[in-house]
Amino acid sequence: MLLKIWRVEQTCLFELVWNEAHTLSAKLIYPETLTTLYQTWKNTYLQFYRSTLRARPGLVLNLEEPEIDWRTRLVQAEATFLAEFHYWVNSAELLEIRRQITRSKTSTLYLRCDSPEIVKLPWESWQIGSEFGSGQPIHVIRTSVALCAEQAKPVRRTRNRILVILGDETGLNFEAERAALQQLDHRTEISLVGWQPAIRTPELLQQIKTAIADPEGWDILFFAGHSNETALTGGELGIAPNTSILMSEIAPQLKTAQERGLQFAIFNSCNGLSIAELLIKLGLNQVVVMREPIRDDVAKDFLIHFLRYLSSHQDAQEATISACQFLKLEKNLTYPSAYLIPSLFSHPQAQPFRLFTPSWKTQLRRWKPKCREAIVLSLFAILSSWLPIQSALIDQRQLAQALYRQITRQGIQATAPSTLLIQINEESLQKDGIKLIEQNLDRRYLAKVIDRISQSESSVIGINYLLFRHQPSSDRIFAKSLQSATKSGKQIVFSATQDVQSYQAWVTALPEFTKFGSSGDMDLLGDPAFYARLIGDTSAQTEMLPFAYQVVRSCNPKALNRQNEHLYFHPITQFSALFGQTWLHPLVDFSIPPKQVYDAVPSWQYLQNRDNPNNEIVLVVPGGQLDAGVLPGEDYFSTPLAFKFWQPNATRKMSGGTIHAYLIHSLVAHRMILPIPDLWIIIIAAIAGKSTIILITQKKLNCKWFFIVPILYGLVSLQFYISSQVLIPFLLPTLTYLAFLAQLNLKPQSND
């Protein structure tokens, strides 16, 4: 379906042609305001993109440096211009044409314009069919006024051949183009020609002409550099500093290249309308150009994504549309109006260009897992999904990380901890003559500890005791101590827990206590408690921050930044919980030495010591086998192996207060460990193992060198844990990879 547009003075003639014999015509007055708005938009566009334009050498843009927000001005100018343009093309005079286009069920409308004012309009933004409720988008593709009767015929090659012409690099940088093109290297044969300081101009001109007319032919012609439109010569290309070549000068070579299979060209440079017209006239199937000046970084971004889409089996038309959509949706704030600049010209009868790829059946057959490989993959996938196995692997891994820290001396430097752990243990109660009241700590003793803390420079007091039971003889004294601590500038955080009778309610400290501070959920996850508490990980309707988070927020209200996604319950983690998994659930890092995490002191010693520690946070926690006010033993967890590595005399169980101290350290130091699920890396390891087998069998390589890969992977994994706070699983993925490689010894000549 072809739409032809002529402009005769102030009237535009529209003629729709379909099925070769059917036509529909309409007349429409051309509004001069559209030209005015176009010029306003273009001037604003040039002001915003006033540096590193890929215009021809010598083009001077007399643009001032106004102190105004040109980005906002450009967005406004674009909106006004497009609104007027869409109002014009959606006028009543064109209703029947629009209805016929929609009725034809086509996805592509070819557009031919004979007026410079008309051809420069953003026809690609015309949303045809939306007024009729059509769900299928109709894309506008431009075509030339003078079409060549003989189209380019694709030549069957083993690889696509691409000729890259890099022009004058003055003010530009082609490294991004080179890198993007190299990504196609495994599927294409790329030949590069361009200016070099040692090459003279006549020699460069001859090199370009010879390369274009190469006897083997090309599939794609790519140009990057400066260019501009010309009236009669099809445009000019800046091929060297102060040197241009006219398109008409290389037209014979381009025609020869077209006869030898050149189908597609992309000119990643400015003002390419006349270039596209000439190339389509010469017989190329498709050409991508920039209608207006284009800034260097925008041109790079467009090309990178265009080639990415092209290499992912999209044709030239789809890749152009996708790259423009990327600029519109992903880069609209950085590159406003940039999506309006690229245009695709095509012969209406030509098939869109697509990179040649081998048969998918051939490719898929090589990757089909054998029976033994499928069994190995299934076995390790099942093991990785079993939570006790996951916990054991984390325990062993953090032990390995602690050993690696000690060997490499990374992250174990002497630093002053921000947290002081005051442990109320049996020894303290005996020395101070304190007795338990109905298995609960006498709050008069707790009041003494609070009074002592009030004399220090600490700013936050965290009480890891569940103070929900009344002690008539002690509550008033304890409340008075809390009041004194609050008056001295201390922030107090009490412990709370979800009610076992109703998970929608909370068990908190007594109201006469909580009025002096805030509350945090003291519950922890797992045993050992490797998994960190997160914001939003409870099922209660009234959300409460975990205890450690509330302590840190009391210390620094800005610490729990919403931008730090590791602190919040991730949607992937929520999804995996539906089938009993903990994907991407952050971990507490027990591979750090305890002396860097907290200072610990028994309460009796703290009360007798007259020195005031300078820790910003003080946690009052139970020690030994004393309880925190919950069920006996509920606040004690298995001691991780990494913790025992640093403290060989540690008991089999550690208190929840110690874990809270580790979690506080993770929040303050921004060291929450993100574990990559074993299952994900096992799948990657299986793919790596299969690809290694394919590589070895195809290239006849010595397989023994590939058994070194797990060692290198292990070292990288250990270092990545420390450097990036990401736990990349090692054991199960390594066993998966080695199990795949082991087949090479069983059947070394197999090419299945």
UniProtKB/TrEMBL annotation:
Residues 396-696 form the CHASE2 domain. Keywords: Membrane, Transmembrane, Transmembrane helix. InterPro entries: CHASE2, CHAT_dom. It comes from the Bacteria. The chain crosses the membrane at residues 679-698, 705-722, 728-746. Pfam families: CHASE2 (PF05226), CHAT (PF12770). This is CHASE2 domain-containing protein. The lineage of its organism: Bacteria, Bacillati, Cyanobacteriota, Cyanophyceae, Leptolyngbyales.
